[in-house]
Design goal:
83% helix; mainly alpha; 78 residues
Length: 78
């Protein structure tokens, strides 16, 4: 269970910080639900986690953990 949560959180962080997603964000200028989905680590990890685990609790925990990891990585103070 813990490895599944960590794995989903890491997939979410990798999705947000990956080069294709960064380039997609620079091309996509309209601020609608899709832009928020590719711009928010917590949102995208929740939906990725729900699709992979089919458990709302696992998806919720993974999305919050992914947001903590993403903020730590982006703050530059590892």
């Amino acid at each position: 269970m813990i490895y599944e949560i960590l794995g989903i959180a890491c997939v979410g962080v990798l999705w947000i910080n990956s080069e294709p997603t960064i380039r997609l964000r620079s091309l996509y200028k309209t601020e609608d639900w899709f832009f928020r989905l590719i711009n928010c680590c917590m949102c995208s990890t929740f939906w990725i986690g729900l699709a992979l685990s089919f458990d709302i609790y696992t998806a919720s925990i993974s999305s919050i953990l992914a947001e903590f990891i993403c903020r730590k990585i982006n703050s530059g103070s590892l």
